[in-house]
Amino acid sequence: MTPQTDTCDPSRVRAEALACLRALAGEVDGLVVGDEVLHHTDKAIVTAGALRGQPVVVKLLTSGDGHWRARREHEVRVYAGFAADPPAVTAPRLLCDHAGALTVVSRLSGVRLGEHRFLDHDPGPAVATRLLKAMRAVAAWRPGWAPPGGDREAIDREHGLGHLSATDAQAAAALLERCPAPVFAHGDVLPTNILLTDTGVQLVDWEHADWLLPGYDLALLDLVAGTASPPLREAIATEVHQSQLAAAFAVNLALLTAREIRLHTALPEHAPERARRLTLLVGQAARASRLLRDLL
Predict the structure, then answer these.
(1) Contacts of 280 (CB under 8 A, 6+ apart)
(2) What's the mean per-residue pLDDT of the chain?
(3) Checking CA distances to 138, which of 82, 185, 199, 284 falls within 20 to 30 Å?
(4) Contact by Cβ (8 Å): 289, 168
């Protein structure tokens, strides 16, 4: 069930997506959807609800794109793996997978690290320590499927699109040969996907989780949160050094920065934060370039 509303009217798009979610939720015994919309994008709508009295998060994939449908199926597989072999970090439990589009998971009690893609405040050294502990726990988990590969293709893609210079692409490819084997990673450790509790960290939205180059989550966290939080960036640098992940971190940082520049360049010129973030990302690209070249 995919909404067909005029995409020029965001309020109508949201209303129709919510109506589709409610219709499918009505087919699940004991599932009640509330009025609280937690998140809404061009690919999904997420609401709060309850399943037989238990607080839940209900997510409807509204996009018909094959890529996002595959991502949803992958996320369901990740949750199934967690059920059989729980990781040492708190994640939602899959409670219902319905009609190939509706996902119901347990609602966690933590508070988001931030409300935007890039962190806009410094949570302090104590939170940085907890975040690094969570990243280590994720990397220690072993999924039951083979690594997908694709890092060299990502280098070639970003270079072909003009977001990675020829020199940096060559450096990244050379360093890739020196990187350790892939480890499990969350793959999308944005501030909105990190929940803080009094004692630890919870992670949500596992659709991008997979075997990835070591240090992937560290590089993404550095990119989206390190500028606002110097203690976090310093803690990440220490972790990279102690874990001997300098080459992998540099490759990850270069590719992730190129991706973010590509995504933000594609936004409308009047989009909030576009200009400021692109300025920040250009600086991060220069930093990533220096890291690559210093390691050769």
Answers:
(1) 118, 227
(2) 95
(3) 284
(4) yes
